[in-house]
Amino acid sequence: MAYVPDTETKIKIGGDGKSIDETDVKWIVSPYDEFALEEALKIKEAKGSGAVTVATVGPERAKTGLRECLARGADDATWIDSTGTPSLDALGVAKALAAVAKSGSYDFYWFGQKGVGYDESLVGPMFAELIGVPHVGSIIRLEVGEGKITAHREIEGAHEVVECPLPVVLTAQKGLNEPRYASLKGIMAAKKKPIAEKKLAELAVPEADPANAKTRWRKLELPPARQAVKLVPADDPAAAGKELVRLLREEAKVI
Amino acid sequence: MKFLVFIEQRDGKIRKASLEALSLARKLGGGPAAAVIAGKGVAALAKDLGKYGAGTVYLADRDELALYSNKGYVGALDAAAKKEGPDAVLIAATAMGKDVAPRFAARNDVSALADVMDLRVEDGRLVAWRPVYSGKARAEVDCGSAKLQIATTRPNVFAAEATEGAAEPRVESLELGEIAPRARVLRVETSESKELDVSEADIIVSGGRGIKGPENWPVIRDLQQALGAALGASRAVVDAGWIDHQYQVGQTGKVVSPTLYVACGISGAIQHLAGMGTSKVIVAINKDPEAPIFKVATYGVVGDIFQIIPEFAKAVRAAKQE
């Protein structure tokens, strides 16, 4: 689970020029991770047994995200405390999660197809490679069979239907399901559920040292401002249509 | 600097985004680059790659590679990388590229510059700009201490440039061991319409709440077809069930950078702007003059989409007949 700025948040650049200004940012469980958690809960409910563990790498605030996942129905959680390493790269995150996943035996490893922040779509398949398990990425439909799954994955203008034995790493795309809200009972129960704590520094993650990072942010900027809009009068629709075509052909030269 | 480019093909057709990556590699490397292609019966495709900048093509031509599998295709890329010893690997950030790149990167103990929109070389190192927070900001990134540098390139952003009369590339077959992927593609289900996907389109025509209901898609479709564009949609209409999610442009949909984006009856929530704000030219048609979409639009019409769009489509068709 990635705990990320709310998708409605306006991004401001921080004083260091390479990260965001976190004041006034509201944090949320990344929407794709909500689909991932929902599907894990549905599998558990359908089987009538099993447990769902949720894990995250992040600073103290990420625990709030874990509590939210517990309130929705996850059974336990692991928080990998990355305080002091705010810029851990995707490989580092995947290694940290792989290090804690080793201690359990799971049939399904769920990720969102991307975190809505860095937007890299890297961590899930990287994690799969590190633990030596196949993955199916960006799935929009899942059928769970005996010891195997069949998943529909979204590709350009088509679906790939993939069959895979368990264990498997899956990354969730929008359309997979409608995530549930936490019930009041769930919120109360979540307070008693355990959150295990690990320190990033104690795991085998060389990338935690910025000198070993395999990707780095050098600068962060707001997108360049766009030119002011040129308005075309609408009172005569036929003339407006023609004028748009003229501008697109002669001025912008795009059609 | 030595580049290796992963060339994606499906059904024997090379994806344009891969040719964009190949042309970029030739430009940045100052000469022919190496390429790798996997599939079944794809040997003939290898020759075409010379035009776009391939000096060497590593070929993985096997029955078992007829359909995509992560294991098979990453295996081919990894075998080519071991032979070529590149400084950098470029992969188009398509559905396949996004599936291949992270596993290949992790196998080589590195990460990747994902979905880059600008790429340059400084002192033998890749430096890229990439959109973050769904395009609400952009980050300049590099590969830190990574020995092997990997970047995935956003489709439609870089030019695919063919050079006529380029030498045919040297083709080298890859020796791959047994390919028995655990995750096996059973079939590819193409949507009946075989529609152009927004992530691959040069022109996108999108509809939002302003279309008032799913029964009015034909109005938008008319303009879309006149322009030879792909159809897009805002989150509001996807969530309302007026159209499937695959059409959604925005933070939880597809992030696109077409040459022309026409927003019809879309107010321009921050979510949506994040997904299309890097389009080269934006046309907005909306009856609300205060709609945020006009802040990013190049051209705007404040008016009734049901009056303007049919006339716009008519004018496009007339202009195309000239």
How many angstroms separate the termini of chain A? 43 Å
Helix content of chain A: 25-40%
Oligomer: heterodimer
- Could you describe the largest sheet of chain A, including whether it forms a barrel? 5 strands, mixed
Find the structural class of chain A using helix and strand composition.
alpha/beta
**Helicity range of the residues of chain B?**
25-40%
pLDDT averaged over residues of chain B:
95
**What is the global morphology of chain A?**
globular
Q: Please trace the helix and strand order of chain B, writing H or E for each element.
A: EEEHEHEHEHEEEEEEEEHEHEHEHEH
Count of strand segments of chain A: 12
Instruction: Report the β-strand fraction of chain A as a percent range.
Output: 25-35%
> Structural class of the secondary structure composition of chain B?
alpha/beta
Instruction: Give the mean pLDDT of chain A.
Output: 95
How much β-strand is present in the residues of chain B? 25-35%
Number of E-state strands of chain B:
18
What can be said about this structure in brief?
The complex is a heterodimer of chains A (about 260) and B (about 325). By secondary structure, chain A is α/β, with parallel strands linked by helices. Chain A is built from 6 helices and 12 strands.
Tell me what you see in this structure:
The complex is a heterodimer of chains A (255) and B (322). Chain A has 255 residues and is α/β, with parallel strands linked by helices. Chain A has helices spanning 31-47, 62-72, 90-101, 123-131, 184-190, 237-251, and strands at 3-5, 27-29, 53-58, 76-81, 108-112, 135-144, 148-155, 158-165, 168-172, 195-199, 216-221, 230-231. A five-stranded mixed beta sheet of chain A has the order 5-9-6-7-8. A three-stranded parallel beta sheet of chain A has the order 3-4-10, sandwiched between helices. Chain A has a two-stranded antiparallel sheet with strand order 1-2. In chain A, a hairpin with a 3-residue loop joins strand 6 and strand 7 (148-155). The radius of gyration of chain A is 22 Å and the shape is globular. By secondary structure, chain B is of the alpha/beta class. The model of chain B has no long low-confidence stretch (mean pLDDT 95). In chain B, the strands form four sheets. Chain B has a seven-stranded parallel beta sheet with strand order 7-11-6-1-4-5-12, sandwiched between helices. Chain B has a five-stranded parallel beta sheet with strand order 15-14-16-17-18. Chain B has nine helices and 18 strands. Chains A and B meet through helix 3, helix 4, strand 6, strand 7 and strand 8 of A and helix 4, strand 7, strand 9, strand 10 and strand 13 of B.
